[in-house]
Each structure stands twice: as structure tokens, then as C-alpha cells.
Amino acid sequence: MPVQTERCSGDGQADRREPRVVVGAAIISAGRVLACARTAPREVAGMFEFPGGKVEPGESETAALIRECAEELAVRVEIGDRIGRDVRMAHGRSVLKVYAARLLHSDQPRALEHSALRWLAAGELHTVTWLPADVPIVAALRPLLAAD
């Protein structure tokens, strides 16, 4: 069941909208996951996240992730299963959904839109400061890395 939010229009009528979907890719390779350091906005610069972005109208979640990984990291990926739960963001206006992903064709990520990239094993996940929305995903990801 989708979560809905309400917004009042100029005439006071409630306008129901589903939250904007933001997708993230937990790119896993050799038992490690790729963490990407934000460059902006200033209040979160240097904090780490999973690469990804907003799902555009008419775009599937997996298509958005494939596009975002190409734009942000210059890599091709195969999208796998969801990791963790939906995470509410932006006072309920957005929801983050993270999927496992793997690199294709021996592609190597490049930091096109991030200040740094780090490959982290399960025991290293705590060595970076994650964006608050990514923290629950990190917890759900730990057993997947340990098993890889």
C-alpha cells in the first residue's frame, strides 16, 4: 500500500500525492560495498551515501538506478534485490529505496559527482559518516557483505 501525503491547494482543498521515490544502489563487489562522499549541499558535504537519485516520471526504479550509476560513476550495473526497508526523507515528501547492484563488464567506478569513493567490507561500514537516510540500509547490508 503506497504511503500518501496531503498538501493544501490555494482553495484549501487537500491534494493527495505519493512521496517522490529516490533510489540508491548498494554496489557490491568481492564482499565490499561502494560508498560515495557527497560534495553538496554544504551541510552534508563529505558524508557518505549510496549512489543514485530521483526516479523521473515514467521511469522504473531499476531504470533510474542504471541511469544514475552511469551519470554519477560512469559504470554499467545489474540491479538485484531490494535491501532494507523504505526510508522516509524530506519530512515525508520522499522515500528512499535501495537495491543491491553489481558492476558489469569489469567497469570501475569514477567519482564524477562525488568527492571520494571507498570500498567498505562489513567490518569497515562504521569508518565513514553515512547520511541519516542511508544508516538503516547500512545495518541491513552488513549480513549480505559478510556472506559474500
UniProtKB/TrEMBL annotation:
The keyword Metal-binding applies. It catalyses: 8-oxo-dGTP + H2O = 8-oxo-dGMP + diphosphate + H(+). Keywords: DNA damage, DNA repair, DNA replication, Hydrolase, Magnesium, Metal-binding, Mutator protein. Its cofactor is Mg(2+). Its EC number is 3.6.1.55. Residues 18-145 form the Nudix hydrolase domain. Gene3D superfamilies: Nucleoside Triphosphate Pyrophosphohydrolase. The keyword Hydrolase applies. InterPro entries: MutT-like, NUDIX_hydrolase-like_dom_sf, NUDIX_hydrolase_dom. GO terms for biological process: DNA repair; DNA replication. It is an enzyme of class 3 (hydrolase). GO terms for molecular function: 8-oxo-7,8-dihydrodeoxyguanosine triphosphate pyrophosphatase activity; 8-oxo-7,8-dihydroguanosine triphosphate pyrophosphatase activity; 8-oxo-dGDP phosphatase activity; 8-oxo-GDP phosphatase activity; metal ion binding. Belongs to the Nudix hydrolase family. This is 8-oxo-dGTP diphosphatase. The lineage of its organism: Bacteria, Bacillati, Actinomycetota, Actinomycetes, Micromonosporales.
